[in-house]
Write a structure and sequence with these properties.
By secondary structure, the protein is mainly alpha-helical. The protein has seven helices and two strands, in the order αβαβααααα. The protein has a two-stranded parallel sheet. α2 links the parallel β1 and β2. The longest helix is centred in the N-terminal third of the chain and has 21 residues.
Protein backbone atom coordinates (compact mmCIF):
# COMPACT_ATOMS: atom_id res chain seq x y z
CA UNK A 1 0.00 0.00 0.00
CA UNK A 2 2.69 2.50 0.93
CA UNK A 3 4.93 3.78 -1.82
CA UNK A 4 7.78 6.19 -1.59
CA UNK A 5 7.69 9.15 -3.95
CA UNK A 6 11.07 10.72 -4.62
CA UNK A 7 11.58 13.94 -6.54
CA UNK A 8 14.93 15.54 -7.21
CA UNK A 9 15.33 18.90 -8.91
CA UNK A 10 17.67 18.83 -11.87
CA UNK A 11 20.79 20.86 -10.96
CA UNK A 12 21.00 22.53 -14.41
CA UNK A 13 17.57 24.15 -14.14
CA UNK A 14 17.73 27.89 -14.92
CA UNK A 15 15.74 28.89 -11.85
CA UNK A 16 17.39 29.66 -8.54
CA UNK A 17 17.88 26.69 -6.23
CA UNK A 18 15.45 28.14 -3.69
CA UNK A 19 12.78 28.57 -6.35
CA UNK A 20 13.39 25.07 -7.77
CA UNK A 21 13.24 23.47 -4.33
CA UNK A 22 10.03 25.31 -3.45
CA UNK A 23 8.36 24.38 -6.72
CA UNK A 24 9.47 20.76 -6.40
CA UNK A 25 8.08 20.69 -2.86
CA UNK A 26 4.77 22.09 -4.11
CA UNK A 27 4.52 19.45 -6.83
CA UNK A 28 5.60 16.65 -4.52
CA UNK A 29 3.14 17.63 -1.80
CA UNK A 30 0.31 17.81 -4.34
CA UNK A 31 1.18 14.32 -5.60
CA UNK A 32 1.44 13.04 -2.01
CA UNK A 33 -1.92 14.62 -1.09
CA UNK A 34 -3.58 12.91 -4.06
CA UNK A 35 -2.01 9.54 -3.24
CA UNK A 36 -3.08 9.81 0.41
CA UNK A 37 -6.64 10.69 -0.63
CA UNK A 38 -6.65 7.66 -2.96
CA UNK A 39 -5.49 5.45 -0.06
CA UNK A 40 -2.25 4.49 -1.82
CA UNK A 41 0.06 6.22 0.67
CA UNK A 42 -0.44 6.74 4.41
CA UNK A 43 2.09 9.48 5.22
CA UNK A 44 4.10 12.21 3.52
CA UNK A 45 7.74 12.80 4.31
CA UNK A 46 10.59 14.80 2.84
CA UNK A 47 14.31 14.09 2.62
CA UNK A 48 16.98 16.76 3.10
CA UNK A 49 14.47 19.59 2.64
CA UNK A 50 15.04 23.19 3.68
CA UNK A 51 12.71 25.16 5.94
CA UNK A 52 11.05 27.00 3.02
CA UNK A 53 10.37 23.76 1.15
CA UNK A 54 8.95 22.15 4.31
CA UNK A 55 6.62 25.11 4.92
CA UNK A 56 5.39 25.18 1.32
CA UNK A 57 4.86 21.42 1.22
CA UNK A 58 3.13 21.38 4.62
CA UNK A 59 0.68 24.05 3.40
CA UNK A 60 -0.54 21.63 0.71
CA UNK A 61 -0.29 18.32 2.62
CA UNK A 62 0.78 17.98 6.27
CA UNK A 63 4.33 16.62 6.47
CA UNK A 64 4.63 13.74 8.93
CA UNK A 65 8.39 13.16 8.76
CA UNK A 66 11.58 14.83 7.58
CA UNK A 67 14.81 12.92 7.07
CA UNK A 68 17.88 15.08 7.52
CA UNK A 69 21.41 14.43 8.63
CA UNK A 70 21.64 15.53 12.25
CA UNK A 71 24.24 14.44 14.74
CA UNK A 72 26.72 15.74 17.26
CA UNK A 73 29.01 16.47 14.33
CA UNK A 74 26.43 17.95 11.95
CA UNK A 75 24.07 20.33 13.73
CA UNK A 76 22.96 22.48 10.79
CA UNK A 77 19.26 21.47 11.20
CA UNK A 78 19.17 23.22 14.60
CA UNK A 79 19.19 26.65 12.96
CA UNK A 80 16.05 26.42 10.80
CA UNK A 81 14.82 22.87 10.22
CA UNK A 82 14.05 21.82 13.81
CA UNK A 83 12.33 25.11 14.75
CA UNK A 84 10.21 24.86 11.58
CA UNK A 85 9.21 21.27 12.39
CA UNK A 86 8.30 22.24 15.94
CA UNK A 87 6.26 25.20 14.73
CA UNK A 88 4.37 23.04 12.22
CA UNK A 89 3.78 20.23 14.73
CA UNK A 90 5.94 17.70 12.91
CA UNK A 91 8.01 17.08 16.08
CA UNK A 92 6.05 13.98 16.94
CA UNK A 93 3.13 12.72 18.90
CA UNK A 94 4.87 13.35 22.23
CA UNK A 95 5.42 17.02 21.39
CA UNK A 96 8.99 16.67 22.55
CA UNK A 97 12.34 17.30 20.95
CA UNK A 98 14.55 14.36 19.97
CA UNK A 99 16.86 15.25 22.87
CA UNK A 100 13.93 15.13 25.30
CA UNK A 101 12.84 11.74 23.98
CA UNK A 102 16.40 10.41 24.35
CA UNK A 103 16.64 11.69 27.92
CA UNK A 104 13.14 10.45 28.80
CA UNK A 105 14.15 7.01 27.50
CA UNK A 106 17.25 7.12 29.70
CA UNK A 107 15.20 8.17 32.74
CA UNK A 108 12.78 5.29 32.11
CA UNK A 109 15.52 2.65 32.24
CA UNK A 110 16.15 2.69 36.01
CA UNK A 111 14.79 4.98 38.74
CA UNK A 112 18.30 5.73 40.01
CA UNK A 113 19.76 6.86 36.66
CA UNK A 114 20.32 10.63 36.52
CA UNK A 115 21.47 12.11 33.20
CA UNK A 116 24.22 14.71 33.35
CA UNK A 117 23.37 17.75 31.24
CA UNK A 118 26.27 18.20 28.83
CA UNK A 119 25.56 21.77 27.83
CA UNK A 120 26.68 25.30 28.54
CA UNK A 121 23.56 26.88 27.01
CA UNK A 122 20.64 27.78 29.28
CA UNK A 123 18.10 27.03 26.54
CA UNK A 124 19.50 23.52 26.11
CA UNK A 125 19.47 22.98 29.88
CA UNK A 126 15.80 24.03 29.99
CA UNK A 127 15.08 21.69 27.06
CA UNK A 128 16.83 18.84 28.89
CA UNK A 129 14.85 19.52 32.08
CA UNK A 130 11.66 19.28 30.00
CA UNK A 131 12.46 15.62 29.38
CA UNK A 132 11.32 14.86 32.93
CA UNK A 133 7.77 15.78 31.81
CA UNK A 134 7.80 13.38 28.83
CA UNK A 135 5.94 10.20 29.72
CA UNK A 136 6.94 7.17 27.71
CA UNK A 137 4.57 4.22 27.82
CA UNK A 138 5.82 0.62 27.70
CA UNK A 139 4.76 0.62 24.02
CA UNK A 140 6.81 3.79 23.40
CA UNK A 141 9.85 2.20 25.05
CA UNK A 142 9.39 -0.95 22.98
CA UNK A 143 9.09 1.12 19.78
CA UNK A 144 12.26 3.07 20.62
CA UNK A 145 14.17 -0.12 21.48
CA UNK A 146 12.95 -1.79 18.28
CA UNK A 147 14.03 1.18 16.13
CA UNK A 148 17.40 1.42 17.88
CA UNK A 149 18.05 -2.31 17.41
CA UNK A 150 17.96 -1.77 13.65
CA UNK A 151 20.76 0.82 13.77
CA UNK A 152 24.35 -0.15 13.18
CA UNK A 153 26.83 1.84 15.22
CA UNK A 154 30.25 1.96 13.62
CA UNK A 155 33.47 2.90 15.29
CA UNK A 156 34.56 2.92 18.89
CA UNK A 157 33.23 5.41 21.38
CA UNK A 158 36.75 6.38 22.34
CA UNK A 159 40.09 5.95 20.62
CA UNK A 160 41.75 2.78 21.92
CA UNK A 161 44.28 4.66 24.10
CA UNK A 162 41.48 6.60 25.86
CA UNK A 163 39.35 3.47 26.26
CA UNK A 164 42.21 1.83 28.17
CA UNK A 165 42.26 4.83 30.53
CA UNK A 166 38.62 4.13 31.53
CA UNK A 167 39.62 0.78 32.98
CA UNK A 168 37.30 -1.17 30.70
Amino acid sequence: MSRRVVRRVHPRSRRSSTSRAGEAGDRLSTIARDLIQEGKVKHFGLSEAGATTIRRAHAVQPVTAVQSEYSLWHRVPEAEILPTLEELGVAGRKRATPAQIALAWLLAQKPWIVPIAGTTKLTRLEENIGSAEVELTPDDLHEIDNAASKLTVKGARYPENLERMTGR
